[in-house]
Amino acid sequence: MVKQKRNNKWFYTCQTCDQRFTGAMCIELANAWWSKVRDRAEDDHERIDAAHCLATSLSQQGKYAEAGEMRRALLAVMERMLGAEHPAVLTTTGNLATSLSQQGNHAEAEEMLRKVLAVRKRMLGAEHPNTLAIAHSLASSLSCQGKKAEAVQMQREVLAVRKRVLGVEHPSTLATAHNLATSVSNQGKHAEAEETLLQVLAVRKRVLGAEHPTTLGTASNLAGSLSRQGKHKEAEEMERAVLAVRKRVLGAEHPDTLSTAHNLATVFLHQSKLAEAEEMLLQVLPVRKRVLGAEHPDTLATASNLISSLSDQAKHAEAEEMLREALALARRVLGAEHPKTLTTTSTLANSLFHQGKLAEAEEMQREVLAARTRVLGAEHPATLFAEKTLGIVLSGERKQAKRGRSDVEC
Questions:
Q1: CA 323, CA 326: separation in Å to the nearest integer?
Q2: Distance in angstroms (rounded) separating the CA atoms of residues 262 and 242
Q3: Which CATH superfamily is domain 1-125 in?
Q4: Angle 213-228/171-186 helices, nearest 10 degrees?
Q5: What is the pLDDT of residue 93?
Q6: Which of 293, 234, 286 is nearest to 264 (CA)?
Q7: Which residues of the chain have pLDDT under 70?
Q8: How many Å is the Cα radius of gyration of the chain?
Q9: Which of 21, 128, 188, 391 could join 25 via S-S bond, C-beta 3.0 to 4.6 A?
Q10: What is the distance between the alpha carbons of residues 130 and 158, in angstroms, rounded to a whole number?
């Protein structure tokens, strides 16, 4: 922030524990501060600080578009006042990139973060905490775009430095460990992810409390890692607990609450609790469309899982219609080789297979297998699953051909 004023710290920080406020207290105090100074000149330092505080609060409330709009306006003012390479301007640029990522605009966020990282390395050095903060954010953006190898490499580098410079239990170190665990889980290294997340969760519970937003985020990610290892009952229990707290603390329509509901529905799918999964996903999808937008990656993920639920209940025609729409969006928004796009492609191929449209199903499964082999490697679990699925389609085609020959012979 620009020229932070000590007597305004109470608007965003608890004076007893020196932790930043969260939840209702955070947004109410931020709104109160903003109301007090919003009519001042754009270059007023306290107005700028209050705007930063409100944008952060809006982001915590899941109002990503509003936060991004405020941060973009702030950035224009601050660049005019201070120049593009001023430390406060770089911080605001990084915050805007976070807002963009939260809205699913990961490519724009990546471009912005790479520019900030280059400047901070030149001005502060590679191991300065502010440089590491931007590298941490950039790695998250890369991971969200499916650039897993680059993301993991960057996260390992940042984590090593943060452990040495800040300490193992510093909040920033824990944040990078958390994100690294998520990335390695996405690479299929679920046991490694579980071990790291258990360590992070224990510290966050002790330092921040069991109901702190970041603690809940780690618990939810740990549940996802457990589910990917087949520990579905344990994962379901954990997701239910997180969902109950997030509904109470954040509200039913907060993006984090919706994320947990989506994840719980995914655990239901893994346990073949198809009706429960469908019911929950039908609740989450319209809210995500309204809150995040139809093209947000999280909305697309929920649509994809709902389609899986329909397919598994043999509602294939209904699923196909939704899948074609979801796949077109995923290819446009995420790209043809993004993991979520490939999952949607595979799901559509499965729906086509069950309707007897085997040639189109084969073409799509070959596309998925080729992309996963190229991006993830031949031994990745997702690649092996694609290979197995293609084999099922080819077997179905052989059976169909055999039946056709039998019909002719009769």
A1: 5
A2: 12
A3: Tetratricopeptide repeat domain (1.25.40.10)
A4: 20
A5: 96
A6: 234
A7: 1-24, 397-410
A8: 23
A9: 21
A10: 11
